[in-house]
C-alpha cells in the first residue's frame, strides 16, 4: 500500500463529490445541501417549469424568506407589493416542488446562513450552495460552501449537481491571540484590508492557526462569511471538537451510532501535514486592533486608531482615483481620524453578525447605558430563534432600555431591500458585510465594524473604540457557542 | 438560452473604475423582480439617474448618445465584485452588452456572465492599458471579437489573443447551456446517488 500524497481539506471534500468529469470539461460536483431564498430563486423555478422538469432532491433542499421581508411587526402587512409577490412566489414554488420552507411565521425562519447551522443542516465535509454570495459562512463547519447564480440554482434544483472547476487553495493563518475588544470581525476585515477585495479570486481560503482554533463556532461563521469580500468564493475551517459540540443534538445532526460514525469521518477531514497551498498569508492576532472601513468596499479598512489614507500617497493612478472617489462619496477628509466621526445610525445584525453571541456582545456594552441623542440603533436578530433566545435572556430588554429598535429577523439594512435603509448622506456603523455605494440605502455611508465597535459607537454617537469602554476585558469574554 | 455567439464588431464603452461591484451594476432594490425583464432600466441605476429619475448631468458614460449601440465594455480590474446576483449579467445583456474586457473578474460574476452569453474577456495589464490608450485617441475605434479564434481584432490590424475556458467556449458557441449538458449525465447521477446515501434529509420532521 502506498501512502497517499498529503491533501488539503478542500481536496478531500472535492474528491468525495466528483460525480463524473469529461475530458476538458468541469467536474460534475454533487451538492449535499441547497439553500434557497426568495430573491435569487424565482427565475430558476420558472426555468424548471419551462423545461418540464422537477426538483431532483427536495429532501436536500431547504428554503426561507429573509432578504426582502419587513422586520417590523409580523402582524402588519407588507408595504412593498413587489416584495410580497416575491415571497408569495417562493411559497408557491416550494409547495409545488415539495421543498420544505421556513417562511414568515415559522419558528425556523431566519437569514439563510443563520438557520442552516442552527438547524444542524450545515455539517463538516458537505458541499453546500445557495444563490447568495455569503454562503461561504457555512465553511465554518469544514464544509465547502459557496454562492451561485440563478442559472446554477436551476441546475442544482434539477440535478443536485453543478459544473465546477477545481479551485485553488489559499491558507490564511492567524497566529497568536486576540486582545480584549478585538473580535472575529476584526480578523476578517484586517485580512481583506491587506489583500484587497480581489485578493482571493479563484481560490478557497482555509483559515488556520491558533487564533482561529480559539474562536467559537459563531465567531468562525463571522470570519468565513466575509471570505467573498476578499474575492474567495468559499472559505473554510477544519472541523474540531468545537464543531462537533455545536452540532451535537441539533435537529438535523446525526444521532446514536450514526453520530459516532459521522464524527469519525469528520475527524479525517482536516488538511494533512505537508499538504501544499497555492497561496498563503499570515496574520498576527496579537497585533490586531478593532477594524473599521472608511471607503466604499470592504478592503478599504483601517485599524480604528489610524487615519483615513490620502489619495496623494497612492502611487498607482487608478488606486488614487478609486480612493478619491470613495472619500468623496463618504465625505471624509484625507488624513482625518476615523475615531470621532459622526454617526447617524447603528445597525447590529446580518448573516455576518446577527447571531446570539453577537447580540450578547452588543448588549454587554449597552447594559445600563443609552444610545446617544440623535442616533438610531437597530438591532435585528439573524433568525426567529435568535430573537426568542435574546428575549429569554433579557437582551431584548437591555436593547430597548438603551433606546434601540428591537426588530424581527431578516437581512434588513444589510441589503436594504425591505425599506430598512439609510437616508442619503447618513453615516452608519454597521456589523454587516458590505459598504458599497448605496448598499444600505441610496446615498448612505457605511462604516463596517464589529458588534463591540458598533455598540460603543451607538453610545458615543461617533465612531468609538470599544477598548476604551470600562471593563472591556470582561465584556469581550462574553461569548457563546 | 442565449443566441449562439458569432464574430461581431462594435465600438467600445470605456468604464475605467476598478472593483465595480454588482450592487452598482444592479442596486438591490431592483432584485424584487420574479422574471428577467426590464433590467436595462436598473443597469448602473444610481450612477445614471438622479433621485427624480432624470439623467445625471453630465450623463453617465452609458447614456451618452454615441454609446447606445455599443456592445463591448472596457472596464477596470476586478469587475463584478460582491453579490452573486445574476441580475447583473441579465441587465448587461438587456442593455446590449455582449463582451467585457478587463484584467480580472470576480468569480461568481464571471460564471454568471458565461451562462448568459456575455463574454468576460481577460487581458493582461499592458494590453488593458493599451486598449484604454486606444480609446483615448480614437474614442470610436471598433473592435472585432472572434470567440472561435479567441482573438480581438484592432483597427490597426493587430490581434490580441485571449484565453477562455474551453468548455464555456463550446457552450457559448453552440448557444447551449450547462443544464442541458448536465441532464445528459443521468446515468452517472443515478449511479452516484445509489452509492452515496444523502447526508441529510431536510424533510425529516417537516410538518
Helix and strand layout, with pairings?
The complex is a heterodimer of chains A (481) and B (207).
Chain A: H1 9-17, E1 18-20, E2 27-30, E3 33-37, H2 42-51, E4 61-64, H3 81-97, E5 101-102, H4 112-118, E6 127-130, E7 144-147, H5 150-159, E8 161-164, E9 168-175, H6 184-195, E10 203-208, H7 210-213, H8 217-225, E11 234-236, H9 241-247, H10 256-266, E12 279-284, E13 291-293, E14 301-303, H11 317-330, E15 345-348, H12 350-353, H13 356-366, E16 376-379, H14 384-392, H15 395-401, E17 405-406, E18 427-430, E19 445-448, H16 451-460, H17 472-476
Parallel strand pairs in A: 3-4, 3-6, 4-5, 6-7, 9-10, 9-12, 10-11, 15-16, 15-18, 16-17, 18-19
Antiparallel strand pairs in A: 1-2, 2-8, 13-14
Helix pairs in contact in A: 2-5, 6-8, 13-15, 13-16
Chain B: E1 8-15, H1 22-25, H2 45-48, E2 72-75, H3 87-95, E3 99-102, H4 107-114, E4 119-122, H5 125-137, E5 142-146, E6 151-153, E7 159-161, H6 166-174, H7 178-183, H8 186-195
Parallel strand pairs in B: 1-2, 2-3, 3-4
Antiparallel strand pairs in B: 1-5, 5-6, 6-7
